[in-house]
Amino acid sequence: MTESSTTSPLLEKPSMDLKSVVALCKRRGFVFPGSEIYGGFANTYSYGPYGVELKRNIRELWWKRFVHKRPDMVGLDGPILLHPNVWKASGHVDSFKDALVDCKACKKRFRVDHLIEEQCQ
Prior knowledge:
Number of strands: 4
Strand order of the largest sheet: 1-2
Structural class: mainly alpha
Number of domains: 2
Strand content: 5-15%
């Protein structure tokens, strides 16, 4: 008897790609495409009812593990928008660099985020 004849099709691992996982998450209410009623916005998602709960549970477990269970840690939640002097003092303004790619054909450099936006439109 060969090995292939003894293997049940139910035991074989299904092949999954990212599109299949995203489609499943949409169908099950974990995520919904962002700005969908206005034509959508590439690769942005809003959390659905199950996605919100999953995200909350992961955040809570992370917080317990890395903040509550460590005597040398405390929690901090700060704003995203800050005075420009904060970014200057931290070195972000002087050291920030946009990711670039080199075109081998024309020898020009392009910002990655601009190329991605062009592909999505």
